[in-house]
Amino acid sequence: MTLGGGMGIPYNNDKKLNYKKYHSAIKKFLKNKKSQIIFEPGRSIIGNTGVLISKVIYIKESYKKNFVIIDAAMNDLMRPALYGAVHRILPLLKRVKKSKKIYEFVGPICESTDKFATIKNFQKLKEKDFIAICDVGAYGISLSSNYNLRPKPIEILINGSKIRVVKKRQKHREII
Asked: What is the mean pLDDT of residues 16-38?
């Protein structure tokens, strides 16, 4: 028997998985059965450990739609384009003023699926501001690609006050 494959991470106000209750239920189940259980906890362990930092390239406002175009694209984080995964987006510089408009956070690839989120009442952003796309620790970099000859981003590991470059940003000559 395999358990897991559905043990995700809490998004927004979702309830966190209670591992103690889960453990108790499994122990109770196994009490009178000869079974072996294999866990595949997936995103519940690593999902919320990664963040994709991106810079606002351009803010495009029009009559019908408003866009925040960032320098990250669907090749850097494929989950929203692939199956509509939702990742929280946070500004790195907090401002009090919020926009009442609805913004689509998109990448620069100009594909209809190069979209991260649609958010209303996000704080006012400016070009060159930085945002964080949260919860990309699972399947973030592993699903990334060089689509449109875009280099893969730098990977940094932060452990307490120690910062280490795990992988440097890919160069175009390394792709070709």
From this structure: 84
